[in-house]
Each structure stands twice: as structure tokens, then as C-alpha cells.
Amino acid sequence: MVASPADLPPGFPQWNEQDVEYKDGRDPLGLDTISVDQILPRILPGWVANTRRTRYLSFYLFLLQEFHERGLGTSQTELGNFIRHTEFEFALGVLRHEAGNHCGRGAVGVAGFNRAWGAVTSGAPATPRTAAIPSSASGGYGQFGYRGVLVELGLIALSGEQVNGSTLSYDRLISDRARAIASRYRSDVASTTWYRDYLGGDHDLPIGIMDEVVDAGCLCLLPQHTAERDALLTAITTPGGEHPTEASRSARRKHAMTVVLSAIAQNPRAATELGELRRTIWSLGTAKPDGRVTVFEDWAALIAKEYYAALVGVAWHHLNTIGQTGPHDGWAQPALFDAVRLSASGKLSCLGATIHGADSLTSATYALTVATEEMHPEDVIQEVRKDGRIAASLAGMMVLAQRLAAYDGPPWSETLGLGTRAQSSVARTLRRLREEDHRPFCDVAARLTDELVLRPHEALATAKLGWYNPPMHSFRFRHERGRVYFFRDRDISDRGVGAPRFSALQTMTRDLGLWRDADGGGQVTADGAHMLQGLVA
Ligand SMILES: [Zn+2]
Question: Which of 37, 75, 199, 214 has the highest local Cβ count within 10 Å?
């Protein structure tokens, strides 16, 4: 495959293979980045996917306070080491806390789970101290995003920042809210042997030393500590300062939580199943306006974008499958598109409709409308994923285009209008579909595959060569001297329809005691219901 430089056309990237890292890019079509970088910062400011356990916020505030008051160090590096070790100790307790809900082996979002689990199950009576996540300088505090959330909530300032005229050498609490939460947490664990004799030390830990700590301080016990819980809820959902931006950012976080709670109130399974959460939020967001609809519409629009991404993912996988059946010396591009067109030709059954590949989109739209009338978009997407063909992907997009035609107000147009240089916005793709109603179904399938899969991937993978050192080779296919070569594929259509932040919202609201486990999912608590009553447009 590697030709001598003299044979290469001008501009062809040349590299020494040893110096290139071969990787599956995590977002080969540039669709996730639209949600993560553009949509979510707007509708859920300051939150990331890994900040899943609310009480870590208290725990880290407590650690920052202890580090400072005990004088355990003077630098961010020392703080990071202290945190990484203490996270490991805390994890020992959480993983032995079988009595609590969602602790022990089934615990999610625990920093240092693997290392602590090894120690807990080793049978040894004691364990040496270790860092929970050795690869990260500040452990789960940094890597899981809690540090960023605490900044966002105005609770801490970071090392290097100026506070009261001096530059901080390590992260510090900066508000009364933060100090109150840290002190409450401390009062829960201050009588334990660990707090008195082990915290910040370096001798081996008896395996059961943390049992006493998690008796009051476990991640699962926040709802029982109502003052601490209320203080956290206030910090998350109300502004800490006067700046108007803070007010709108905290309001949007509250909205996000109420959207999830509303969904759980309607459908208990939405508490624990992402598909059910998407399904219910979509239904809430596309119900007719009743004054509160804007909140749901923001999130329904995000879900529409994720449905779209899943459909493109199906086309991606099918194109790769077709590509790998091709000739040894690569595909001439026209032959590749003929193969795609062929896959969407003849008499096809998609989503329960019979479509003829040579027919116009208009007639296919009619057949699809009739066949999918009773289907929720969630089911449409799941059907298309099961089907796996480019034809089904296009059929799914046609259904989505039709369902979304009625929603062109601001939340929808803002979210669905977002694209990147490499990747089209949802709105643009669906608008073009509506304009192409006279074209044959199979031709549109080929055009979409070119514009949504082939070109974006090559553009993004080419860019990634330059973003990383050593260069990252994430091409699944690429052009070389006029032919398209397919390398390998990892199926991204199976990765779950994107549900960015939804898992975090589920567990964060549960940890806050806004819903609790119930048969078949979750049930909104009295506190949760109280929050829903405050829901306004
Ligand atoms: Zn627990």
C-alpha cells in the first residue's frame, strides 16, 4: 500500500509507519462532538458524563478543607496525591458497603473501583496505600469532572487563580456554601478511627477501616443527611453570586433535573433505562405547548440529534461492510457508489413499508408514513439499527424528517441547526431530503452516504493526523490515488444511541433523594415532587 514518494501525487500524506499511532477514533464521523461541544454546554452547563455521584462533591470539598487545615502540603501536586490516595481509601468503604443501595460490586461512578475491588477481594487483612487512578494527576477529582463542576458551582478556585490578591498554589474552597458542605461532611466522619489516625498518613490500611466511615459518609446515604443534601441541591440549582450568567446556568441545571424527574414521574422505567428516558422526554417535548414545553423541547431536540446520529451510524457501518467486500486494489469511487446504490435498489422492506429503490422519495415517504404511523421514534431507530442497511438508515431519516417538520421553533432550530465544517447539521440534512422528493430513493441513499459518511470521515481523520503527536491514524477508509481503500471497522451503530449526560442525571438525581428505586424502575419522592412543582417555563 505504501508507494515510493516519487509515485505519490502532490499533497498525499507521507509518514513513516513506526511513528504513527493506529487508533479507532472515538467519534469517526464528528457527530458526538456536536452534542458534547455545542449542545450540552448550552442546556446543561458545567456538567460532564462522568460526574455521576452527587456526594463526591461533598467528599472533595471535605478533602480540600482537610488538606488545607492540616497543612498536608503546599502544592497542587501534593494535593493531587492526597486526593488520589484518599479516593482509594473511600472506595474500599463504598465497595464493602453492601448494606447500602448501589454500593458494593454494583456501585457505579466510584473513583478507583478496580484497585479497591482488588484489595477488598484479596482476602488480605490490610492494604498498602495507593492512588485510585494512577494515570491521572488528581484522580477521579479531575478525571471524572468533579473539579470542573465545583468551579462551575462557585465552590472552589483552582491553583494558579488569584483570590484576594494572592495566587493559589493549590485548589481551595472559596465560599461559605463550600465551607458549610465540607464541615457537614466532616461532622459525619470526624469520630472515626480513619479520620483521627489514618487520613493523610502513609501506613497500611486495615481492610475494614473504612466501614465506620461509610456508615455515615457513603455515597448512597446523602438523602438521609438532609442538611448536606439541601446545601448541595441549593449549590447546584441556585446562583452563588450576583452575576446574571450564574442565575441562568443554575436554572438550566435545575431544568435538566426536572426534565428527568418529569420523565420518571410519567414512566418509572425512565429512571434506569436510557431508551425509556429518551422515549419519555421525546414524548414530553413533542406534546402540545402548555407553557412548560420549552424545557422539554431543548432536551427532545438533543434526543432528535442523537437519533439522527444513530441513523448515520448505521449507514457508516453498512458502508464499511460493503467497502470490505471490494477489490484488492481498492474501489474506484463510481463503483463504490454503484454498490451503495445497488444495496438500496429493487424491492425493499424497511420499517414495515415496501419501497422500490427506483421510485421517488415521495412515494417512499407515503409508504413509510403509513407503516410507521404508530411507531415512537425510539422504536424506529431501534428497528433501523437491527436492520443495519443504508436503505433502512435513509428510511429512518425520512420518518425523522417528517416527525420534525412540525418543530421549527427556537429550541429545535438552535439545536438541530448545529453542525461543523466536516459534518452537516440535522436541519440541513433533513431539509435537503424534503427538497429531493422527486429523486430516486437509491440515488439519495448514495448521496447521503457520500456526504454524511465518506467525506466527513476522511476530513476528520486527516485532521487527526495533525492534532496528535505522534500522528493518529484513525482512517477506516481513505482515498489513495483516486481509489478508496477500506481498512477496518468498529461498529459504532451498536454503541447505544447517544445519551449524553443522561446516566449522570439519573444517578445524580437519585443520590439527591429526588427519586428512589421502585418496582420496574424508579419513583419520584416527595422532595422530587416538590421540585417538579417549581417547574416553570
Ligand atoms: Zn453505600
Answer: 214
d(CA 410, CA 414): 6
Averaged pLDDT, 76-98 = 96
Check residue 496 and give its pLDDT: 47
Ligand 1 center to 141 CA (angstroms): 19
What's the CA-to-centroid distance between 258 and ligand 1, angstroms? 25
Cell output for 423: 459534518
Q: What is the mean pLDDT of residues 410-419?
A: 90
CA 53–ligand 1 middle distance (angstroms): 11
223-253: pLDDT as tens digits: 999 999 999 999 999 998 888 888 999 999 9
Q: Which residues pair with 478 in a beta bridge?
A: 485
- Cell digits of residue 352: 414495515
User: For ligand 1, a single-atom ion, which residues have Cβ within 5 Å?
Assistant: 97, 100, 103, 218, 220
Q: 97: CA distance to ligand 1 center in Å? A: 5
Residue 391 · residue 357 · CB < 8 Å: yes
> Is the Cβ–Cβ distance between 129 and 123 less than 8 Å?
no
Q: What's the Cα-to-Cα distance from 110 to each of 25, 103, 107, 257, rounded to whole Å?
A: 26, 9, 7, 21
Contact 453, 315 (CB under 8 A): yes
Cα 90 from Cα 188, distance rounded (Å): 14
Q: Give the largest CA-CA distance in the chain.
A: 78
pLDDT tens digit sequence for 27-37: 888 888 888 88
